[in-house]
Amino acid sequence: MIIGITDGVTYVASDVPAILKYTKNVYYIGNHEMAKLVPGEATFYNLDGDVIQKDITEITFSAEAAEKGGYEHFMMKEILEQPDVVKATMNSVIKDDKIDLSSVGLSDEEIKNISNITIVACGSAWHVGMAAKYVFEDLAKIPVRVELGSEFRYRKPLLDKNGLVVVISQSGETADSLAALREAKDRGVKTLAIVNVVGSSIAREADSVFYTLAGPEIAVATTKAYSCQLVSTYLLALQFGLIRGEIEEVEYKNYIKELQTIPDKIQRIIDDKERIQWVASKFANVKDVFFVGRGIDYAIGLEGSLKMKEISYVHSEAYAAGELKHGTISLIEDGTLVIGILSQDDLYEKTVSNMVECKARGAYLMGLTTFGHYAIEDTADFIT
Ligand code: BG6
């Protein structure tokens, strides 16, 4: 719940966009807190009736950012916003071609002493965690475990006092993720939140916060916040890698340069949307869709598959490409759509061979790969 204040008027709403037209000054009310509202003023109390002081938060995004702006759906608008918001998120920590985590509140000393990382999240944010595991282990050589918030909170996970628990959440309010954060804090483990909504419960309660700058995400199924979360984990892993001496300065600089090309690359994909819409209409009535990939491509497939289910109401599964043959391949039949994700050169041939196995069973193959991998045209029926 939030409380908005302006001259002579007080508003109560469940989220900021509802009152943005009227005020940008809001209070976040926490659990076990009460508020007495009079026009233009709010006083806060704990359950004993003692007054508590709260700071007002000024919302930085505009009312227009939370409106459809001529688009038919918020989701379409949010997909198209990705290049800008990913750039804004990167720019918030890249200063003079270096990553500066001072706004996050993580010191070099703390980063050096982290023994392991536990990432806890739900839904798409959990998929970001699955991708981040590969990146952190690769760049920073820190062991990473990825947990679902709804599982973590109901068991007794082993947590090391020198570990770091990273909670990823767009809203900062998902109950299972919040409960996991509290569990970690109760056990005295340092917490870092990657959150989009300023002032949300997870942002307020975590020891350090990396804010994604996706702006308001109105569509329930995340798109732009997911992309910002992904890039945030890359930035963190890169900085951890440098500080812990796992990557050289030159390599670090090259990665930063590469990261800075991502917004334009996303734009290039968006510019190709007519082709993507064409293939989507061709497969709109498909019964099953399988996403296959290895390593980080598997993690990306998990998200693609969730979107397919949630947005298109089409049954879909994501598989680590090498695992498909252990039973599930029996579900591949004539016309089943299999989307192979092929973004890594070293795993390319391996995944292609798994796609060929599906083709032998009648699957229609789509290859999702980076520009220049034209050889995939020999195998896949459609390439993007
Ligand atoms: C789900 C949404 O209900 O919540 C997903 O449909 C989202 O898109 C998930 O990833 C978790 O939400 P949050 O706010 O914690 O990132």
Characterization of this structure:
The protein is an alpha/beta fold and 384 residues long. Helix content is 38%, strand content 22%. It is built from 13 helices and 19 strands. The protein has helices at residues 74-80, 82-91, 108-113, 123-139, 149-152, 175-186, 201-205, 224-243, 249-260, 262-271, 273-282, 296-312, 345-359; strands at residues 2-6, 9-13, 25-28, 33-38, 41-46, 51-52, 57-58, 94-95, 98-99, 117-121, 144-148, 164-169, 190-195, 208-211, 288-293, 315-320, 337-342, 364-369, 382-383. The strands form 5 sheets. It has a 5-stranded parallel beta sheet, with helices on both faces. Strands 16-15-17-18-19 form a 5-stranded parallel beta sheet, sandwiched between helices. The chain has a 4-stranded antiparallel beta sheet with strand order 2-1-3-7, with no helix packed on it. Strand 8 and strand 9 (98-99) form a beta hairpin. Helix 2 packs antiparallel against helix 10 (262-271) and helix 8 runs antiparallel to helix 9 (249-260). The longest helix is centred in the middle third of the chain and has 20 residues, at 224-243. It starts with a strand and ends with a strand. The model has no long low-confidence stretch (mean pLDDT 93). 6-O-phosphono-beta-D-glucopyranose (BG6) is lined by residues 122-125, 169-171, 174, 177, 220-222.
